[in-house]
Amino acid sequence: MSLSFLENLPNWALFILFPFFSLTVLALLSVLFRLVSKKLGFHDFDSDILDTATQNAMSGAYVVLGFVLVMVMSTTNEIDANMAKETSQIERLDRLLILEGSAASQTARQTLHAYTQSIIDDDWRKLSLGTRYSETRGFSNKLFDNLKAIEPKDSLHNALWIDIIKTNEELNQYRSLRMLSSKSRLPSLFWQVNYLTLLGVIAIAALRLLNPTGIRVTALVIQLIMISLLFATVMILDLPYIGQERSSPEAFEFAVQLMRSR
Fold first, then answer.
1. pLDDT averages per 10-residue partition of the chain, 262 residues
2. Residue 247 phi/psi, 5° resolution?
């Protein structure tokens, strides 16, 4: 099952699929180990060793997935913070152009509004598809050309023009960060290793069920479900522009409304 297929599933499907997969594999391995237990000597096992192995495997899985979940959430928070800074620069540039007041500044304002609207209409759709370049880049280039056309009349307007150019450069930097964040994800190697780790945890749990009791089965099933849900949560939060928990362009929508009200 490919990662791209899993990434596009709704949250509820992942929260069902991962536990179902884990419990299905546990049931199959339990049956398999029972069938070959006598031939391989599994019927004569040290329960203390298996208990220790089960505890270590479960604890290790919790620690790793918990640590990765914190990292993924930190990345998501950083992306949201950079978007807030980007919209702040858009609003600042709009105010500076109003203060500059020339016809060239008004033209630049119109391009800035079109640029921001394009982020909402075009950029976000392209980012969800993993595409870094869109029509918004054209508006960014046009905005720069409009800003170059501004001719300061005096020292005050010259100071404003310098601030305008500086703000536009900072705006482009935050846009570049947003484009780079669209590729922000855990490497495939992480998922491959963790799939194998999960399989190992399930295999140890299946060995423990060679001598099943009601409490033992219940405890192992609950632990596997919890690990599977944590696994699914990491996958849901891993890609900031895909799925139900993706980042929203709401900050840019608010910026557009604010600029149009001026």
1. 64 87 92 78 64 80 83 80 91 92 91 91 72 74 91 87 93 86 74 85 86 85 90 78 64 88 82
2. -65, 150
Q: Which two tokens stand for residue 42?
A: 């599994």
Rg from Cα positions in the chain:
27
Helix 11-40 / helix 214-238 crossing angle, nearest 10 deg: 140
Contact (Cβ atoms closer than 8 angstroms) between residue 119 and residue 135? no
| The pLDDT value given to residue 194 | 83
Among 118, 177, 176, CA closest to 143: 118
d(C-alpha 66, C-alpha 111), whole Å? 45
**Which residue is associated with the tokens 């190697």?**
189
Please give the distance of CA 168 from its chain centroid, rounded to a whole number.
27
Placement of tokens 């536009």 in the chain: 168
Joined tokens for residue 225: 């479900």
